[in-house]
Specification:
298 residues, alpha/beta, seven-stranded parallel β-sheet, 7 helices, 32% helix
Length: 298
């Protein structure tokens, strides 16, 4: 029997065959070049029509959590636009083809989230292509490990905030004027917002800001019928980790300190995004849904 997201299984033993080896790649890196490929749900996610007719934009949709979410949305019946860095074009085209093979209308939009004009253009392009926008997933992010604040450059701090926080603000601000009641905004935060690693000062700070932004904007947009929520991943195996997101010596044991004793896979995040995007979560606003292998959170 082919396993899908509904298959009864032991979560401890799941993905036991994937053990990342120490390797480093130049940022931003490509999924296709990883020695141990993440599971994006390409062969396992089964759609049930939960997003039929919906129109979604996902930042960072070329790889990792964004790609798994894009595949899931497409299989649930949505039209999907993905944004990504131009250097990530090979990964983006692979994900786009998977979605097209599933019958989705797909839009690929390369650019840099640090550019406010690009962020605004993403909304316009999605609305023009699909005739509207009712799901925005602010997922694209920057994470570079540095365990000494004296060598954490102003440029890196600024780039991390612009990518992770400013882009979320710019995109949300531009999107809401197009979003009808019933629309959903989903922001990707992190376990780092609650339990920051010593070498991720800038990244963890942005993730805490995303939590606060989500809870504040959810209250503001609720009367318009637009729901805003967040997903907080734990240690998930993506190309972000070996491209200086973690120190080299921590790659092989990545995620082993969770109660489940292993890292997570992007495919394990996609159902959370589908739930928050769908009408099933109509009474869920300002929530941070933790998908972290069992680590306690506030």
């Amino acid at each position: 029997m082919t396993r899908d997201q509904y298959t009864f299984t032991d979560p401890v033993a799941l993905y036991a065959g994937i053990e990342p080896k120490t390797t480093h790649m130049k940022e931003p890196g490509l999924d296709r070049d990883l020695r141990d490929q993440p599971d994006l749900g390409e062969d396992s996610y089964r759609g049930t029509g939960r997003l039929t007719g919906r129109k979604a934009l996902i930042t960072g949709g070329d790889s990792g959590i964004g790609a798994a979410t894009a595949i899931a949305f497409a299989r649930e019946g949505a039209d999907v636009a993905i944004s990504y860095l131009p250097e990530e074009e090979p990964d983006a085209q692979r994900i786009a083809q998977i979605m097209r093979d599933d019958g989705a209308n797909v839009l690929t939009l390369p650019g840099d989230l640090k550019d406010v004009d690009y962020c605004r253009s993403l909304i316009d392009a999605t609305v023009d292509a699909f005739g509207g926008l009712d799901i925005l997933v602010n997922n694209g992010g920057k994470q570079i490990y540095n365990d000494d604040i004296s060598t954490l450059s102003d440029e890196q701090f600024d780039d991390t905030f612009k990518t992770n926080v400013y882009a979320m603000f710019w995109l949300t601000k531009a999107a809401v004027e197009h979003m009808p009641p019933g629309s959903a905004i989903i922001n990707t935060t992190s376990i780092q917002a609650y339990s920051p690693s010593v070498g991720l000062v800038d990244y963890a700070t942005t993730k805490a800001a995303i939590n606060a932004f989500t809870k504040a904007i959810a209250q503001q947009l609720a009367p318009k019928g637009i729901r805003a929520n967040a997903v907080a991943p734990g240690p998930i195996w993506t190309v972000l980790q070996p491209t200086h997101g973690q120190p080299e010596e921590k790659i092989e044991g990545f995620g082993e300190d969770t109660p489940l004793g292993r890292m997570g896979q992007p495919a394990e995040l996609a159902p959370a995004f589908v739930f928050l995007a769908s009408a099933e979560s109509s009474y869920v606003l300002g929530e941070t849904l933790n998908v972290n292998g069992g680590r306690p959170t506030p």
